[in-house]
Amino acid sequence: MKLGSLKSALSKDGELCVVSRDLKTAVKATHIAPNLREALESWKDKEASLQKLYTDLNEGKAANAFPVKESDFHSALPRTWLFADGSAFIYHIKLVRMARKAALPETLETVPLMYQGECGQFLAPTEDIPQRDFAHGTDFEGEVGVVTDFVPMGVTPDEALKYIRLFVLINDVSLRGLIPEELAGGFGFFQSKPASALSPFAVTADELGEAYKGGRVHLPLNVTYNGQFFGKANAGAMHFHFGQLIAHAAKTRNLAAGTVIGSGTVSNDDHASGSSCLAEKRMIEQIENGAIKTPFMKAGDTIEMQMSDAQGQSIFGKISQKVKAV
Amino acid sequence: MKLGSLKSALSKDGELCVVSRDLKTAVKATHIAPNLREALESWKDKEASLQKLYTDLNEGKAANAFPVKESDFHSALPRTWLFADGSAFIYHIKLVRMARKAALPETLETVPLMYQGECGQFLAPTEDIPQRDFAHGTDFEGEVGVVTDFVPMGVTPDEALKYIRLFVLINDVSLRGLIPEELAGGFGFFQSKPASALSPFAVTADELGEAYKGGRVHLPLNVTYNGQFFGKANAGAMHFHFGQLIAHAAKTRNLAAGTVIGSGTVSNDDHASGSSCLAEKRMIEQIENGAIKTPFMKAGDTIEMQMSDAQGQSIFGKISQKVKAV
Question: Name one Pfam family in it (chains A, B) (predicted).
Answer without folding.
Answer: FAA_hydro_N_2
